[in-house]
Design brief:
Helix content: 40-55%
Number of strands: 8
Keywords: ATP-binding, DNA damage, DNA repair, DNA-binding, Helicase, Hydrolase, Nucleotide-binding
Bound molecules: iron/sulfur cluster
Low-confidence stretches: 300-306
Radius of gyration: 20 Å
Structural class: alpha/beta
Organism: Alicyclobacillus mali (ex Roth et al. 2021)
Order of helices and strands: EHHEHHHHEEEHHEHHEHHE
Mean pLDDT: 92
Protein name: PD-(D/E)XK nuclease family protein
Length: 306
């Protein structure tokens, strides 16, 4: 039985070859992707905080994760950015913890694996299951149950919110969480923090820069942080069930054909595909990657994507 996670499905939606390189060959780029790695380190901090640990422990968890990633950097120019990125990360973690209220936790860190059902016959796929990890389900004061997701973004909040209606992560996780936990989850409580583009001023020390960023996240907290409830009703979940079934059928069909499609339209997305060298088998491409132990980063502690 093969495991499909949301990340794997969304990677394939972008490019099937990229999915193959990441999930089948388990290649991971050696080059740091600051944006993703800050997101994953921020996520580690929120997990620590959700487990009931303190702000200082959450900051330590974030910095430990970023240092882990940085240990792989070979380029001295990139390595020089680490102290600055660490300060930015620390300020974001503290701002989130001070801004977001604690609701009653109902489920903390629950790994799930649920069948994927044919909506016509009601039978489960014999090849694929949907799996993942639910970080947190909370009960809000009005009695609603919500998955909690933490996001970092480079967009402003209005641009970021444009995705909510079609956000497939919310849809897949709501569907899976209802099935796995038997709780009438209403959707996701999304906690988003805007990443700063503010850089240190000439002659400013890192401590001065940290103080200035902290003041900015406090004074402009409505512009930089938000907590939104994103609902998924039964009609939307039914559509997601059908899409999930189409996903497994497409995979089976292409596997039978023996084809791994490439999507050149996705090569330049988000600063460029990190698998370009492997995809094109450029000279010495093997040196640019390492092979991960785990197929699914989100189900292991090895690395996490944002
Ligand atoms: S370089 Fe383009 S075609 Fe190749 S894996 Fe990346 S997105 Fe796909």
């Amino acid at each position: 039985m093969e495991t499909l996670t949301y990340s794997r499905i969304s990677t394939r939606a972008r490019c099937a070859m990229r999915e193959h390189l990441h999930y089948e060959l388990r290649l991971r780029p050696r080059q740091i992707q600051w944006s993703l790695d800050i997101g994953s380190s921020f996520h580690a901090a929120m997990e620590t905080w959700n487990q009931g640990q303190s702000e200082e422990e959450a900051v330590a968890a974030a910095l430990a994760r970023l240092n882990e990633v940085a240990a792989r950097i070979k380029d001295p120019v990139e390595l020089e950015k680490l102290p600055l990125r660490s300060v930015q990360l620390e300020v974001m973690v503290r701002a989130a913890i001070r801004r977001f209220p604690k609701y009653e936790p109902v489920v903390v860190e629950h790994e799930f694996s649920v069948p994927i059902i044919n909506p016509r016959t009601g039978r489960a796929s014999r090849t694929f299951r949907l799996a993942g990890k639910i970080d947190l389900v909370v009960k809000t004061p009005d009695g609603g149950y919500w998955l909690t997701e933490y996001k970092t973004t480079s967009q402003n909040l209005e641009q970021f919110r444009m995705r909510y209606g079609l956000d497939s992560q919310v849809s897949y996780y709501t569907l899976a969480a209802r099935e796995a936990l038997g709780i009438p989850i209403e959707g996701s409580l999304i906690r988003v923090i805007v990443k700063t583009r503010t850089e240190p001023r000439r002659g400013e020390t890192l401590d001065e820069y940290r103080d200035r960023l902290e003041a900015m996240y406090t004074q402009e907290s409505d512009r930089l942080l938000a907590e939104d409830l994103v609902v998924r009703d039964e009609a939307q979940l039914e559509l997601t069930r059908r899409e999930l079934w189409a996903e497994v059928q497409t995979r089976l069909f292409e596997k039978r054909l023996g084809v791994i499609r490439r999507n050149p339209q996705a090569c330049s997305d988000f600063g460029g595909c990190p698998f370009r060298a492997a995809c094109l088998q450029l000279e010495n491409w093997q040196d640019m990657y390492y092979v991960a132990k785990a197929q699914h980063d989100e189900l292991s502690m090895e690395t996490q994507t944002a």
